Amino acid sequence: xxxxxxxxxxxRLPLMGLLPLLLAALGAAPAHADDAxxxxxxxxxxxxxxxxxRIDAILSRQPxxxxxxxxxxxxxxxxxxxxxxxxxxxxxxxxxxxPEPYNNLAVLYAAAGQYxxxxxxxxxxxxxxPAYATAFENLGDVHARLASQAYDKALQVQPxxxxxAPVARLALVRSLGVPAGQAPSVAVAPLPPQKPGAPA
Length: 200
Hints:
Blueprint lengths: L9 E2 L3 H12 L3 H15 L3 H14 L4 H14 L1 H14 L4 H13 L3 H14 L4 H25 L7 H10 L10 E2 L14
Parallel strand pairs: 1-2
Helix pairs in contact: 1-2, 2-3, 3-4, 4-5, 5-6, 6-7, 6-8, 7-8, 8-9
């Protein structure tokens, strides 16, 4: 029996929809809010390279700018995931109390098939913010993928003709709210406000 492959969660780039929440949460100054809005507009209009140049220019003046670092990670997630992983990993070290970088790091790990790392990052996001629903949803997706792999392995190691239980469980796991061939949507939450004197 053949089942459609489970597609891991993917990070999407909803910068325009996310921008008002992100700016409000960070308490961005009006000039900085304008920069972020301009960058988001560039990214949404397909001018990602120009948007990244603007982010890099801001980061050259303000290397500890958590908002710009986060936006850069989001922008690089689709095209340069290795760099995005490095950015989010650094954000988790510099700002360990922010759950969003852990979540985004987990999504990138899951997309690369590194489910144990994804689970660890999501566990950390949830410990940091126990009410972070997006992390719980993504953790459920990772658990479903791990379960799917375990059932696949069970069927490979010891296929038992006439025993539908593992096959039925595998079908159930693979059908958990995800249409075949379609990745679950992953929301990228805004960053919370930074406390004065937070590490850079």
